[in-house]
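Workshop exercise sheet. Pairs work together: one partner reads the sequence aloud, the other fills in the structure field after running the prediction. Swap roles for the next sheet.
Pair: D.N. / O.F.
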Amino acid sequence: MRLRAVLFDMDGTLLDSAPDFIAISQAMRTARGLPLIAEKLIRDHISGGARAMVAANFAIKEDSDGFEALRQEFLERYQQHCAVLTKPFAGIEQLLNEIEQAKLIWGVATNKPVRYAEPIMQQLGLAQRSSVLVCPDHVSRSKPDPEMILLACEKIGVAPAATLFVGDDERDIEAGRAAGCKTAAVTYGYIHPQDNPRNWGADVVVDHPMELRDVLESALCGC
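Structure field:
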């Protein structure tokens, strides 16, 4: 089936949100008189969400006293700082332009809650261009369950078989495959050191956003 739509995961795929997460993490450590930590440590745990980042940032277990207070502070700070330093990865703007020129529909399906995702899309001028934004708030089960992808396809009126889902986490690829989409795994995102995107079962693996151009051209011509 000819490709008609492209759906993206947000963090680590469409957008480089790490700078905001890093700024918040370092500010929290500074406020407690702790030294700054390596930015790579923070990046390595972004895919695990706030819980993983807080646990890594403060070397604390999730069931430890004080963990929940740290997590809540992290989320509160992020609410105020979620669209300050975040920006599209290099090549994404050109890729989106080409997707739009090809008359393809594009949108976002992310495990990031809507209270963060919407302001970020608005701030970056992407909300007006994206045809759909599906967050955990809109479904009963987040990725790797396919519900989020299926809902996005329903909203844009495109069959999953005519949709490419792009992500930087194994959960993205699992969700896309379960929904019946073609899938692309990206290696430039927030990949945990123990993960290997080439083992996730994606239809294609790319190292840079612009490599998706070849994927799209192949899908559009039926090659």
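Discussion prompt: The first strand starts at residue 5 and ends at 8. What would you look at next?
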